Amino acid sequence: MAHNMLRAVLLGPPGAGKGTQAAKVIEKYNVPHISTGDIFRANIKEGTELGKKAKGYMDEGKLVPDELVVNLVTDRLQKDDCKEGFLLDGFPRTIFQAEQLDKFLSENGQKLDIVLNFKVRKDVLIERIAGRRVCKSCGASFHVVNVPPKKEGICDVCGGELFQRKDDNRETVENRINVYESETAPLIGYYEKQNVLANFDGEKTHNEVFEDVVKAIEAK
Question: Residue 24 and residue 1: Cα distance in Å, rounded?
């Protein structure tokens, strides 16, 4: 497989280290990182038709419907920078979205190369996320166990005050993980059947995980 051709999807619960792996994959394979959050923000900022629709739902605190999410993503995948591949993050979230993505790709003579699924035990995820601390002033992030600040509660970078984000407390985290598991479990089966799923032990170090990812991509 040529280095510049990679069509991949990232799956994994919050705290599984997807962000770190995504950054490494896009650097090595030179493909755009496509996250639904970024697409929403870009469309809303540019005031596109799709953006206006999405904003309507978001302003009411509602989830953006599947159909609209699919339209936003497939619109993004038609841009020139995706001709040589892409890394999708946060999409698909449901079987419907996965089927629509397959349909879109096959209509364009393409298909997914690989679905990267990062697995981490729930208690480990909770420890990882609940231990995060962020600086109020400069936004630097620390971890009470893994990357502790030199002085407790104080940012090494700027001396600002460290705090725990609201959605990082244990209860919220556990809830986020449960929602992810119930939403995404069916997708894992869906991609397993298609023979494109690759599982990774997200509890290894970032570099070890990335070595596994590269092996899996090269094997495809």
Answer: 18
